[in-house]
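ARCHIVE RECORD
Type: protein–small molecule complex
Small molecule: calcium ion
Source of inputs: curated submission
Record status: active
Notes field left blank by submitter.
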Amino acid sequence: MGAKILVVEDEEKLARFIELELIHEGYDVEKAFDGRSALEKAESGEYSLILLDIMLPEINGLEVMRRLGKEFPTPVILLTARDAVMDKVAGLDAGAVDYITKPFAIEELLARIRVALKLHPVSDGMADKKTDQSSDEEGIYRWHDLCLDEKKHRVTYKGNEITLTNREFIMLKVLLTNQDIVMTRDTLLEKVCGYDYVGETNVVDVYIRFLRSKIDEVFDIKMIQTVRGVGYVIKSE
Ligand code: CA
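STRUCTURE (tokenized, with ligand):
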């Protein structure tokens, strides 16, 4: 059986043309003419690839991408209008694997489809399996016996749960994901409190003190190190 492709294009003639070409190449094809039905069909997960026009009635292609989410496993090739550079950028940012500019030569579209199918195979209906290996560890950051699980919003040391506030949690995550890199107070402030934070930079020192009192002191370890005059670091060794 050929790969199944969802063609989302509101210009029905163009959709039909693409459909015929794809069938000719041995693909199974379904069509959707608007964003809403595209979303419904896409979410069924039964396609190997989705061709998605950006300019669609109701929900446009970029919004469809956003709603599917970055983790959506089916590769998407966007159909964009010429010169719509921002759309292309936004589309790729939203997780599209490729785009093709209208009007296009059908050979080019077919070539791009072949490449996308090769680079982004969706294993028969088991779309998530591909990333299983890493998904167990995804969002999990470790330092020695300390473990921060982002999805569960949970921090443990040798299995002992440590209760952190949201900002302490973010601060710890930033330090753990940047091990051996000295994080300046400004950087930490920005990451923990946001760009628009107005206030004392010493809130960073305050959160570090909280973290140390909940982790370093309780378990008698030296995890967070001070780099005088610069900031803080968690060293991997
Ligand atoms: Ca259109």
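CURATOR ANNOTATION: Residues 10-11, 53, 55-56 surround calcium ion (CB under 6 Å).
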